[in-house]
Specification:
It is a single chain. By secondary structure, the protein is α+β, with helices and mostly antiparallel strands. The longest helix has 26 residues. It starts with 9 loop residues before the first strand and ends in a 7-residue tail after the last helix. Helix 2 crosses helix 3 and helix 2 runs antiparallel to helix 6. The protein is about 25% helix and about 20% strand. A hairpin with a 4-residue loop joins strand 2 and strand 3. The chain has a 7-stranded mixed beta sheet, with helices on both faces. A 6-stranded mixed beta sheet has the order 3-2-1-6-13-12, covered by helices on one side. Strands 4-5-8 form a 3-stranded antiparallel beta sheet. It contains 14 helices and 22 strands.
Length: about 525
């Protein structure tokens, strides 16, 4: 494809999120051509969170038809798909769903998670995350199989994108290694841990074949072309989870660079030259090209609380609340822990019984709105603190994507509480995987994926907290001031004369602390971030 990176080529990114299914069309230079979305419906009951898999297909098909309206079909070169990490279902041999989609933050499988960690603890430790959480895919798979023992003889495990790629090609095709991570796929050896899965009673026939992201899975069949408007014969390229796709689309591609997805929940993804090992199993690593690793984590907190608590039915005007928060919020220090689901917290710490709480005055709707936004920003800061504690490089640039990054308050709030120079790509939603890179010429699990690192990063604008609608109180510029109400931890600043010295930072980069001979945390001194 000699024109793959030119303005003549069109690449499609398909995204399955929590609240909507999206299709984005970009040309080979990375310029946005069209975007469309359709809403998705969730059912939550305590720790359970489900969606209807058939709705994923219908919503995504409608979004594709709208996005492709007016685009010459002959220009479309390929597509890739991302989904939410850890969302699974069981389907029959024809691809018809047998169960609801158990979503990424569904926490029903607590008992199964204990069994999974007992059976596979050595493997999970080798992969760096040490243990699985109840919301991960493998515990939920075990839960589904235990509900109906006969399912193991007639069902197939599908990660969320697998249902769509099956419909697009007309047959079952392999999963990608990124979505298979939380099902226990051995990323280092690139195989399923068969002995551990056998001890758990997971039949081998249930598991899909797995290939690396960037592998060509097949082409769009005639029936799918009619349903979606995507031209028949279009190449389908294995994608990655939504957090990884957003990271790559936003240009966070070098060690120390990070992307923060301010969506329904907060997701952080970065790049490290080495595998990050977390003794508490909160941070996990996807594989990146050229021997790199993509560490990160997914919180149960995020901007989804705004959609739940601030609605037109309650008389709320989000534009007006945002304007008031920007105008008056500098002196507001109330903060709310912004948990979206009832399953507790997953990142920056694991707390299955955690509940939302508020510190400070939230006597008006605007103050409540501001407290939630500040809560998201503070959770993000804690995430970066924890990543630094594990030895992950965090001294590179920071980008923001997702719905929250498209609001003035979200753009001014998050960088105030986090670190590093930050930008918001001028793209409504980062496309899936590598839409501006040509797919490899053949599907092969052993092939390296195409090199997305050389693709042009999307245009971006600097994000600066001026005026910082969600900044801490004026006195917080002093290192003797608490970061948020009720906190005793100081809010440190960058050294005088250092880069961005007029901005608040959670902590200076590790290399600078070493140069000044400051004491490091125990994890740094013992080299706990390195493989042993």
């Amino acid at each position: 494809m000699s024109d793959a990176l030119t303005a003549d080529a069109v690449w499609l990114g398909l995204d399955l999120g929590t609240q909507s299914a999206r299709c984005v069309a970009v040309d080979g230079t990375g310029q946005l051509l069209a975007a469309a979305s359709r809403p998705l419906t969730s059912h939550r009951d305590g720790r359970q969170h489900e969606q209807r898999p058939e709705e994923w297909w219908s919503a995504l098909s409608a979004a594709c038809r709208e996005a492709l309206d007016g685009i010459d079909p002959s220009r479309v070169r390929g597509l890739a798909l991302d989904g939410t990490s850890g969302t699974i279902l069981l389907a029959d041999d024809g691809g018809t769903p047998l169960t609801p989609g158990l979503m990424y933050d569904d926490g029903r499988a607590a008992e199964e998670a204990e069994a999974v960690n007992e059976a596979g603890g050595a493997v999970w430790q080798e992969l760096g995350y040490r243990s699985m959480q109840p919301s991960w895919a493998l515990p939920k798979l075990l839960w589904l199989l235990r509900q109906d023992p006969g399912l193991g003889e007639r069902a197939r495990l599908l990660h969320q994108p697998d249902l769509i790629t099956w419909r697009l090609t007309g047959r079952q095709v392999p999963s990608d290694a990124s979505h298979a991570l939380k099902t226990g796929y051995q990323l280092v050896e690139e195989r399923w841990p068969s002995a551990e899965l056998a001890r758990l009673g997971v039949p081998e026939r249930v598991l899909p074949q797995v290939v690396r992201p960037g592998t060509v899975l097949g082409t769009v069949c005639a029936a799918a072309a009619e349903a979606t408007g995507v031209p028949e014969g279009t190449a389908i390229v294995a994608g990655m989870t939504d957090g990884c796709a957003a990271q790559i689309g936003a240009g966070a591609l070098t060690p120390g660079a990070w992307n923060s997805v301010l969506g329904t929940t907060l997701v952080l993804k970065g790049v490290s030259p080495h595998l990050i090992r977390d003794p508490h199993g909160v941070v996990y690593c996807h594989r990146g090209p050229d021997g790199t690793w993509l560490p990160g984590g997914a919180s149960s907190s995020g901007a989804g609380v705004l959609a739940r608590h601030f609605t037109p039915e309650n008389g709320d005007d989000l534009d007006a609340l945002t304007a008031q928060a920007v105008r008056e919020g500098r002196d507001w220090d109330a903060v709310t822990y912004p948990l979206v689901s009832a399953g507790g917290e997953r990142f920056p710490f694991r707390a299955p019984d955690a509940e939302p709480f508020t510190l400070g005055d939230v006597s008006t709707r605007a103050r409540q709105f501001h407290a939630y936004l500040l809560g998201v920003a503070c959770v993000e800061r804690l995430c970066f603190d924890y990543l630094d504690h594990l030895g992950a490089p965090i001294d590179g640039p920071l980008t923001f994507t997702g719905g929250g990054a498209r609001t003035p308050t979200g753009r001014s709030c998050a960088p105030t509480c986090s670190a590093a120079p930050s930008t918001c790509p001028n793209r409504p939603k980062a496309p899936s995987a590598w839409p501006s890179s040509p797919p490899p010429p053949a599907a092969s699990p052993s092939r390296r994926p195409p090199r997305p690192w050389s693709a042009p990063a999307p245009p971006s604008r600097p994000t600066r907290p001026v005026p910082p609608a969600c900044s801490p109180p004026p006195s917080a510029s002093s290192t003797n001031s608490p970061a948020v109400a009720g906190s005793t931890r100081p809010w440190p600043t960058t050294p005088a004369g250092g880069p961005h010295s007029d901005r608040l930072h959670p902590r200076t980069p590790r290399r600078d602390r070493v140069a000044r001979r400051e004491p490091l945390r125990r994890a740094h001194r013992r080299g706990a971030d390195r493989p042993r």
